[in-house]
């Protein structure tokens, strides 16, 4: 096992740990094992990429954080007053660190495995807990450094060494504070709900983070187009409640020598609050928290009032859409699986959100400079901008292949044991379920907004776009490897890369959009196009499902 | 029966509840050196909870538990050096290799790295999984993982052992080896808590059987004592009688009947 640089650095402070009665050597060994295991783990921010060579994944994710850090670094170049600038920078940094903490380190914070493995051994709880806290802080600090590294460099050149020193020191404080806040948050959730609920909430926060990254990149370019307003600043009591002001104040105090009582008080808070939080965390939060963690693996079974209705609707839909008993069964199975697959949602939801916002991002780019809202609406109503919905179609059509991934992929042995002659009902049922559960609702929402913007007359066009989208979806299905639903682990390389799928989707959707656009100039062109696309889609539907068991890719069971 | 010396483990009025559900309702027990205790009972009777309390995995119990004279409520950890534990559903750091995991565990007991490494390798070889020493545990079969757990519980040569279904997943040959190991360990004066649902193994291997039901001890004695008292020939039957279960035939019949429903 390799000896990590961090640990060697930590050795210099070993006397500190001995002082608080921690068995330093044991703690060091636990940390070494944890760090080794982390190298073999895949962080959230990278799960969209198929390459997961062990060892490099964490470094690769640091690179992604680094790109984000690039923008924070750029921000530092903007000639705002220092105090205001640092507020902005710390706002972004704290948000990112908090989000990362929740998405990637919840597993560490909520881990009961450590306890089960280590407690029967002669290791005292204090040592285990200190190791856990250090483990989290080491990683958070690394990530924080990659997010704020450039900002640090820019500050160093702009404001000198004092800036860098304060900045580094504060980053450690921020990490401690974030760990404290996150555990308080989890504790609150665990006090009221069971472990399953908490896992759901963590999942939603992970999804939010992914969406933020995805949509954020589209917006960041625009931020710098904003006119730089002159910022005036008046101290107010409520500033004391915002953590970014605490951390920004020392810069004003030490670099601009702005030693008003206001800045001194805030600077003290920057030091006192995280320290107090860490002490509180070690003495009060951890013992209480660990007790609550026992709840994590329990889930109370509550009768869900909505569930009975939902089951009825689901059954009715299955009866309407599917013909054989097998297909119906798989329709229901797929829908149920889709609602419970956390990891799949983590990949799927950001894509769906992206599909939802993409046309509007596009629109806001085109009409950004118009004067009034009524002008915009009039313009929209007379334009062919509704073709922007094809952007959503590109993304939605390519999501369907995701159903072959699952965190419970080992359960897929069941398909092979079933006495079914052909895999077709399985695949048909699953695909229909996916379309009904995700693609249609998202599409309807987009369509609704566009009808509100452009008027009822675009409804035939929207129907056409929908048919074209399903056509592309089937085309991708036909071209891709034939895989059963929930059949493989996320990291296993797919038949076609996501990139390839998106490219095909883009190409064909683009082509459809072009034909669509041209035919709008022909009388009844859209109706003609609907008939044509519907025909192709039907043929594709029949052709694509000409599959025998032999063509189905065997999973790694 | 075996009353020589001081009790290795002594439990007084042990009670424990999760919320409103009372798991243990006053356990009293003295365990002496060299005993192999067959610790049996129906699912949810409180077997695992007792063991977890002794190991300090579960807090919030009432009563007194002493291990080697040390009250575990005092928060000391020294007594854990003398304990080895194979849990029923065991968690391991399975992204590590056996080499990494076992040396880590050994060092947690304060053992020299080199010594653990040597011992671990030898023990792995004796269990016929020497070639897996540098493979990640995630790639192990169920039996291999079980062997690893057994090794990790014995590496530091403990005096008291807690085995919870230790045979699960082991092949017949390995089972024979392991039973032999247990008998020899007991002969050396080590104390073994053996918890299992496989009654004929418990019957054969235990020097003393403790049956727990609804959080209380309902029987305590050697197999001969129990079978005399209950007038039953096998531990399985004693188990049925003492836990008040005699409907197995009826339930099986009903089960078969349901299967035939068209």
UniProtKB/TrEMBL annotation, chain B:
Gene3D superfamilies hit by this protein: P-loop containing nucleotide triphosphate hydrolases (3.40.50.300)
| InterPro entries with a match to the protein in the record | AAA+_ATPase, ABC_transporter-like_ATP-bd, ABC_transporter-like_CS, P-loop_NTPase
What top-level branch of life does the organism fall under? Archaea
Keywords assigned by UniProt, alphabetized: ATP-binding, Nucleotide-binding
- The question of whether ATP-binding is a record keyword is answered with yes
GO MF annotation: an example = ATP hydrolysis activity
* Pfam families (alphabetical): ABC_tran
Domain named ABC transporter is located at 9-239
Q: What is this protein called?
A: ABC transporter
Q: Which organism is it from?
A: Methanosarcina spelaei
Mind giving the lineage of the organism this protein is from?
Answer: Archaea, Methanobacteriati, Methanobacteriota, Stenosarchaea group, Methanomicrobia
């Amino acid at each position: 096992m390799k000896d990590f640089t961090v640990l060697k650095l930590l050795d210099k402070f070993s006397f500190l740990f001995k002082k608080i009665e921690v068995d330093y050597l044991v703690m060091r060994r636990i940390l070494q094992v944890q760090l080794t295991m982390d190298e073999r783990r895949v962080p959230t921010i990278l799960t969209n990429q198929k390459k997961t060579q062990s060892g490099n994944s964490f470094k690769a994710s640091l690179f992604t954080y680094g790109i984000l850090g690039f923008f924070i670094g750029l921000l530092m170049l903007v000639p705002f007053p220092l105090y205001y600038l640092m507020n902005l920078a710390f706002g972004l940094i704290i948000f990112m660190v908090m989000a990362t903490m929740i998405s990637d380190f919840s597993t560490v914070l909520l881990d009961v495995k450590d306890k089960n493995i280590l407690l029967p051994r002669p290791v005292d709880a204090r040592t285990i807990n200190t190791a856990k806290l250090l483990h989290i802080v080491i990683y958070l600090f690394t990530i924080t450094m990659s997010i704020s590294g450039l900002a640090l460099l820019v500050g160093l050149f702009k404001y000198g060494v004092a800036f860098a020193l304060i900045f580094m020191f504060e980053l450690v404080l921020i990490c401690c504070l974030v760990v404290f806040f996150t555990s308080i948050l989890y504790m609150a959730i665990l006090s009221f709900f069971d472990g399953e609920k908490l896992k759901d909430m963590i999942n939603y926060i992970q999804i939010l983070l992914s969406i933020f990254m995805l949509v954020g990149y589209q917006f960041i370019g625009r931020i710098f187009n904003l006119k730089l307003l002159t910022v005036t600043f008046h101290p107010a009591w409520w500033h004391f409640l915002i953590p970014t002001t605490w951390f920004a104040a020392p810069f004003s105090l030490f670099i601009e020598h702005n030693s008003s009582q206001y800045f001194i008080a805030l600077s003290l808070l920057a030091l006192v609050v995280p320290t107090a939080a860490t002490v509180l965390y070690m003495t009060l939060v951890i013992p209480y928290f660990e007790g609550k963690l026992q709840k994590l693996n329990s889930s109370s079974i509550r009768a869900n009032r909505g569930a009975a209705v939902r089951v009825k609707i689901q059954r009715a839909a299955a009866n309407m859409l599917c013909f054989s008993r097998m297909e119906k069964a798989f329709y229901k199975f797929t829908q149920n699986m889709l609602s419970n697959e956390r990891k799949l949602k983590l990949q799927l939801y950001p894509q769906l959100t992206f599909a939802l916002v993409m046309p509007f991002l596009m629109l806001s780019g085109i009409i950004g400079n118009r004067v009034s809202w009524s002008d915009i609406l009039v313009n929209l109503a007379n334009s062919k901008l509704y073709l922007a919905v094809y952007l959503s179609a590109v993304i939605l059509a390519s999501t369907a292949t995701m159903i072959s991934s699952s965190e419970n992929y080992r359960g897929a042995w069941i398909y092979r044991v079933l006495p079914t002659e052909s895999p077709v009902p399985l695949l048909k049922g699953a695909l229909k379920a996916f379309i009904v559960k995700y693609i249609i609702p998202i599409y309807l929402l987009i369509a609704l907004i566009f009808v509100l913007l452009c008027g009822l007359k675009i409804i035939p066009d929207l129907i056409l776009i929908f048919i074209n989208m399903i056509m592309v979806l089937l085309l991708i299905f036909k071209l891709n490897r034939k895989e059963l639903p929930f059949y493989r682990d996320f990291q296993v390389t797919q038949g076609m890369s996501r990139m390839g799928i998106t490219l095909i989707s883009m190409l064909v959707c683009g082509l459809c959009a072009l034909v669509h656009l041209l035919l709008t100039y022909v009388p009844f062109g859209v109706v003609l196009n609907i008939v044509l696309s519907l025909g192709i889609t039907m043929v594709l539907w029949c052709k694509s499902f000409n599959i025998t068991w032999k063509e189905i890719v065997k999973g790694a069971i | 029966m075996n009353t020589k010396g001081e009790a290795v483990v002594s439990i007084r009025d042990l009670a424990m509840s999760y919320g409103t559900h009372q798991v243990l309702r006053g356990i009293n027990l003295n365990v002496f050196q060299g005993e192999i205790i067959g610790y049996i009972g129906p699912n949810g009777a409180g077997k695992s909870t007792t063991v977890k309390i002794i190991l300090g995995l579960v807090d919030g119990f009432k009563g007194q538990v002493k291990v080697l004279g040390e009250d575990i409520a005092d928060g000391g950890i020294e007594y854990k050096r003398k304990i080895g534990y194979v849990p029923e559903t065991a968690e391991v750091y399975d992204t590590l290799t056996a080499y990494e995991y076992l040396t880590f565990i050994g060092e947690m007991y304060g053992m020299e790295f080199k010594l653990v490494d040597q011992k671990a390798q030898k023990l792995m070889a004796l269990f016929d999984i020497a070639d897996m020493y540098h493979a990640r545990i995630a790639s192990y079969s169920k039996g291999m993982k079980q062997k690893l757990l057994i090794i990790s519980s014995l590496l530091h040569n403990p005096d008291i052992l807690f085995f919870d279904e230790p045979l699960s997943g082991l092949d017949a040959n390995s089972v024979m080896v392991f039973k032999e190991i247990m008998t020899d360990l007991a002969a050396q004066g080590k104390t073994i808590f053996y918890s299992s649902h496989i009654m004929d193994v418990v019957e054969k291997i235990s020097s003393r059987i403790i049956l727990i039901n609804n959080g209380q001890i309902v029987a305590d004695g050697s197999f001969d004592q129990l079978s005399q008292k209950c007038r039953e020939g096998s531990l399985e039957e004693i188990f049925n009688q003492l836990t008040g279960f005699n409907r197995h035939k009826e339930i099986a019949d009903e089960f078969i009947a349901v299967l035939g429903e068209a």
